[in-house]
Structure formats: C-alpha cells, structure tokens
User: What shape does this take?
Amino acid sequence: MPSAFLPEEYLPIVIFMMIVIAFGLGTLAAGIIFRPKRPYREKLVPYESGNPPVGEPRYRFSVKFYIIAMLFVIFDVEAVFLYPWAIVFDKIGLFALVEMLLFIAVLVVGYVYAWKKEAFRWD
Amino acid sequence: MNFLEAAMQPGSVDFLYNIAIIVIKILVVFGVIMLHVAYATYFERKTIGHMQVRLGPMRVGPHGLLQPIADGIKLFFKEDIIPAQSDKPVFFVAPVISLVAALTSLAVIPFFDGFVIADINVGLLFVLAMSSLGSYGIILAGWSSNSKYSFLGGLRSAAQIISYEIAMGLSLVGVMMLSGSMNLTEIVKAQEHYPLGMFLFPQLIACFVYTISVIAETNRAPFDLPEAESELVAGYFVEYSGMRYGLFFIAEYTAMIIMASIGIVCFLGGWNGPFEIPYVPFAWFFLKLYLLIFVYYWIRATLPRYRYDHLMDLGWKVLIPLALLNIVVTGIVKVLL
Assistant: This one.
C-alpha cells in the first residue's frame, strides 16, 4: 500500500540512483591512485586540431537553437496532455476521440503557423 | 506497510530484508548490463569490421574476445586531463549526470514476467523523463569544456535530442491507447491478444517513427552529427579523457540498450516469444535485444551521415506529423471497432 509521502515502489529507483552515482564517483576516485598526473601548459589548452586556440570559445550561436527550444517546450506540454488521455481512452470512447481531435486541430494550427513562419528552416 | 514507519521501528527485520533483496536485484541487473555494454562495443567493431571486409579486433584473446576488458583497463589507467580554462565543477559533474540519467531507466524495464526492480505505474513516462535529463549532461559537458568543438557539439546534440524526443513521445501514445497503461509489464501483457503477440502491426507507423527517433536520440549514425568525427572531432566530449570519457561512453551504450528495450516492450512483445524456452525466461527478451543492437550497427555501416538541416527537417516536418496522424488513426480505429 503506497503512502502519500514516500510511494514505496519508487524506493528501488532511489537506491538504484544512489548505486549508479556511487559507481560513477567511485571509479573516478579510485583512478586517482593509479593514473599518472603530468599536466603542462600545452596539454591543458582546448583542442583545436593542433593549432593554438583562436578567440573566445563561447561565441554567438544561431538563434535557431533558441527557437527550437521554445517549440520543444510547447510540443512537449501538448504531449504530456496526450498521455493521460491515452490511458483512459478505453473508458471514455467517442467523446474522448472528438475532444482530442479538436485538441490536435488546435495544435496543428500552431504547427502550421510555425512552419509558415519558417521556424524549422536552418539557413 | 509504510517504509518510513518501518524504518523507524528499531530492528525491523522485514524492512532490512526487503532492502537487501532490492540491492541484490539492482546489482545483478547493473552487472549484466555493464557486461552487455562492454561486449556491445566488441560486437559493434566486429560487425562493422566484417561488413567492411575486415576482421575487426583480433589481437587480445581468441578472436579479440578480451578487447573490451583491455579497453576498460586502459581507460582506467589513463591520465585525467582537465583543461585549464574549463568550468571545473560543471566539468566534473556532467559525465555523472549522463551516467545516472542513462542507467536509472533500467529500474523500470521488465526483463521477464515478474522481474522488474521498480514496478511503477508511470514506467514509460519515467523512461522518457530520464532520457530528457540525459541532454543536461551533454549540454553541460559541451559548455563547461570551454572548447569550440565541444560547445558546438553540445548545442547540436541538445537541439537534436529535444526535437526527436517529441516524435518519440508522440509515437508511444498509440501504444498507451492500445494497452491503457504506462506500466511496462502491463503493456507487454496487453500485447498477447494481438498478431504474433506484438503491437508491431497495429502500430506500424508508430514503430517506424520510434525507430528513427531512437537512432537520433542516442546520437547514432546516420544521425551522429553531435559527435561527427570528421567535422567536430568527438563533439561534446572532446576535452574529456580517461575514465571521465569512459563514463560518457557507458552512458551512450546503456542508452542504446534502454531504447532498444523500450522498443521491445512496446512494439515487439517484450519477453514473450513464439514458443516458451524452458528455464530461461529472459531468453526472448535478450534475443530481441541483440537483434535490435545488430540493426543499430547495420544502419551505421550502411548509411552516410545526414546534413544538419535535413536532420531537423526530418524530425519536425515528417516524424511529428506522422506520429500525430498515428494517434488520430489509432483513436478512430479503436472507436469504430
């Protein structure tokens, strides 16, 4: 019987996570004893195909990445609305279908708008 | 029984016993999957080698069978180079984030009937959430290395992963509609009444969309632009070396195994097969897993890399509409029948 504050079926996931973190940090920490450490200036410079690095690495990047991130938020929220609907689809039937067709129609309007505004183009 | 209350009772044997069972289960799954990750690299090199009329690794052990172990030992003993201008705390934590995000999903995958570490109701949602978290590790690694290659690789990777994640998430809605559940065990059981005990045929479009999205999600060829070795060297982990690089490597191969497992659970009937194999309840699951892993390599050996704008076009203009169409078609068919 799951309690309100600590649903017990999630406990194994927490333990799993702790074991994985311990594994990750453990292998890195254990390696300190065995691996060599001989740093010098050239070794610690960012790799740029053997040439000395030119300019700032964190330069301006295309605004397209930003638009993609915004579109992702919108579509992902829509997808999250679809999940519970899909689960109870059997119990509601035709009404659920009509309602979801309307919902997807609204989604498609926004999608077509984004397409027409060329949000998906990479030039 | 509430675990919190039980934990507070002094000397509650039941509680400790349950924890011990859980820990043993986790260690078994963890060990088995680590072994699979190690030999997935061997399998990949052999497969691609033979497809290109080479032999692949042959030196270490018979037919190079000890190669993955040699590679692991080598990574462990390599110097850990930390670029002078990197953002140290973020640089340190990024591979661990990747690793945790990839490996924790193993907790909800049913390898055979009744064997699942955490039988939660929202298993599918959990896996999707964890695969989203993986992009944090990638973008943080790319940003903190303070290198142009890794910065660009991290950005590309994050954009690609979030684009294809929508298509992947939407393609699984059809499966949820047919099974009425997000619990992975129940999804497998719901498939028993369908042709061949699989959702493959009623959800053919979804399976197609899922397969392509997964290849993009795991940054595999032909969608391996984030780590395109001919233009970005290695992408977001250029500056990582030694075991830190090893952790990214483990995370990537585990992600492949997890995505293939979800494909098996959702479309290929999970642990069920045409006939029962006695004493090895997980046999069919792992056979299907090896088949899918082989398909990954086959695709990698066959197809050339995509161009970045084509990749984004495919995700946004083809796969997402297809996935939405699949939802509508599934809904209409379900109401009519």
